[in-house]
Design goal:
Two copies of one chain form a homodimer.
Chain A: E1 2-8, E2 15-21, E3 24-28, E4 30-32, H1 45-51, E5 55-58, H2 60-65, H3 69-74, H4 78-82, E6 87-90, H5 94-100, E7 105-106, E8 111-114, E9 121-124, H6 126-136, E10 140-141, H7 154-175, E11 181-186, H8 192-205, E12 209-212, H9 221-231, E13 241-243, H10 249-256, E14 262-264, H11 267-274, E15 276-279, E16 282-285, H12 305-309, H13 312-320, H14 324-351, H15 354-364
Parallel strand pairs in A: 4-14, 5-6, 10-11, 11-12, 12-13, 13-14
Antiparallel strand pairs in A: 1-2, 2-3, 7-8, 8-9, 15-16
Helix pairs in contact in A: 6-7, 7-8, 10-14, 11-14, 13-14
């Protein structure tokens, strides 16, 4: 993997770059949709390509449990399995163990847990996380870490970061060769000193890119933005920076302005399936009775497949009737919104107009972070 | 609507024809997928077009209850609502009232029932069925009838047919002008004398096409085929013949050979959603463990999107994981199978090779009517 920095916005520090992996270029700042269990929910890989997705995230936890990384490896790897020719970043599985799996127990050695699917007992170590991700054939892989809950005491955060750093070192050793790219994950919650410690320790080990973990876990937005702003200057300029699991459209804009290059989030796809739809005029809950006879497209400013062909009234009908097509059309629209936003952000950095773009975007789509009142 | 008969197969009586509606040509014999509630489940209208669908069936019962025919009419009609530029045939709503709605009561005047959605009380008369379908803007509409269960006594069938014929007459009167096309529905179960009576009475009223209702409701296949074979010669040569709610791929071949021009059935789409997939080598239940590591496409002889890009192993994984994409890919494949079959049937009639096609088809896909043994 290579990372080329094309421009740094003088006013904000926002970065315009280009990752290259064995599966092509990824223009940054980039948004990666979540292909949790080997599919971005409701969409085909060719729709992702059409929408301009260049890298998808897949979840090691899900694929390890079902259908199993060995099977995927035997079948030629994850790209071939899901017929996706773009790049893939996999996470370590840790976050899902902490959020989905029952009876998890963290020790120095790793984390034991039961499968949320069948209750079977498993043990994930930093070494196994690397092995699984290499079996899958991802382009960028992540080390096992502990994502501390918010709020945590400084003492807990300190011990947790200590474990994450030890695991980072073991992951680096387990990785052996330079393929695929391995990122380091900074933890430390919202504690600036701990974030500094993480940045220093991880760079000493040396990684191909650096991720900010443990954010967007309940802390106030302002605190998250401040933590990002404090942390990114501690990272090497020539390596990509990835803010994990973030976020709302506003979060993307704000974080790019604080020096982040990569994002992933279930928000556009999950919200699509619950009928919460992003538009240039704010967020719409398509269930609302107000849309029942509304002939307009979701977003007159949008040129996605959904908005070019279907009315709000039809989308509401599909949603109320539980039609799969509704979930498809909603997901496609939300993903298009996110990818268009990233395209606009990249353009604004190139044009030197990011600050103006941010102001305009937040004015027009000021309700993006909250649902409209359902009629 | 016009119907042009292009060729009658001398050996079998199978017919190659062309319907023309205000929404284009429909090559017959034709299969209409079910767009029950204003969407062919899991598919976009543009996928239908790509697959070669020329006419879709929509269910009056579903659309009358949700979102309501008046709303669809206000929004410019069903074609515009669902963004489908091909032809639409709507049923009368009767069949769904009998099969889905609780507390239905049939009288001379019509049928009262409660909505399966919210329990609300409704009354469907022959006149209302026509009015609703005209509001929707369908290209071909159907009169309210009674579909007698199987088995029924001759006495019941006789009285039921009497009601259906009275309703047919009232529907013809309610229809007033010639737009859209109105078909008559023959009932009479598997009683040949009653089918003859139905054919005579309906032609006396005069319809734009003739449908065989009340079949594929539990009677043995051989009896259904015999009833079809007995009835089609009683119908005018120059009008299309529609076998309602049929059927398996084998049913389509056998019924075309007995003079049927049009079909609809939920089978390809519903079976797609349950993982039962049609192939040139028989039916496959994708849930089967035997497919877990199978790299082959569903059907190596198939050129559908699903078979061109994905392995059985991936399709099984998607199905087991409950991924919406699996339902999409399965549905697309099954529909492609049905439409390819109809294309082959039309070609075989043109080539005068239908009998040979039937033999080969049933040999190769001999297991199409039953599931494979699930491993």
């Amino acid at each position: 993997m290579t990372f080329e920095l094309l421009k740094i916005d003088a006013a904000t520090g926002a970065r315009r770059g280009r990752l290259r992996t064995p599966h092509g270029a990824v223009e940054t700042p980039a948004f990666m949709p979540c292909g949790t269990g080997g599919a971005v929910k409701a969409l085909t890989p060719h729709e992702l390509e059409t929408e301009g997705v260049q890298m998808a995230l897949c979840n090691t936890y899900h694929l390890y449990l079902r259908p199993g990384h060995r099977l995927i490896e035997e079948l030629g790897g994850l790209h071939r399995f899901m017929a996706w020719s773009g790049s893939i970043l996999t996470d370590s599985g840790g976050f899902q163990v902490y959020s989905l799996a029952p009876l998890r127990q963290i020790s120095e050695e790793g984390v034991s847990f039961r499968s949320h699917l069948d209750g079977s007992l498993h043990f994930l170590s930093p070494e196994l996380a690397i092995e699984v991700q290499k079996s899958l054939g991802a382009d960028i892989i992540m080390p096992l870490d502990e994502c501390a809950p918010y709020p945590s005491t400084t003492d807990y955060l300190q011990r947790s970061l200590g474990l994450t750093l030890k695991w980072a070192e073991r992951s680096r050793v387990a990785h052996l060769n330079g393929q695929p790219a391995l990122f380091g994950i900074l933890q430390g919650g919202t504690d600036k000193a701990l974030r500094e410690q993480a940045a220093t320790a991880l760079q000493k080990i040396g990684f191909d890119g650096y991720a900010l973990g443990g954010l967007a876990v309940g802390e106030p937005k302002a605190v998250m933005y401040e933590t990002v702003a404090h942390t990114t200057p501690l990272l090497p300029v020539d390596r990509p920076r990835y803010l994990m699991g973030v976020g709302t459209p506003e979060d993307l804009v704000e974080s790019v302005m604080r020096g982040v290059d990569m994002f992933d989030c279930v928000m556009p796809t999950r919200h699509g399936r619950t009928g919460s739809l992003f538009t240039s005029q704010g967020r719409i809950n398509i269930k609302g009775a107000a849309h029942a006879s509304d002939e307009r497209p979701l977003d007159p400013a949008c040129d996605c497949y959904t908005c070019r062909h279907f009315s709000r009234a039809y989308l509401r009908h599909l949603f109320m009737a539980g039609e799969i097509l509704g979930l498809r059309l909603n997901t496609l629209h939300n993903l298009h919104f996110y990818l268009t936003l990233m395209q606009q952000i990249r353009q604004a950095i190139e044009d030197g107009s990011l600050t103006a773009f941010r102001t305009r975007f937040l004015e027009e789509a000021g309700t993006l972070n909250r649902d409209e009142t359902v009629a």
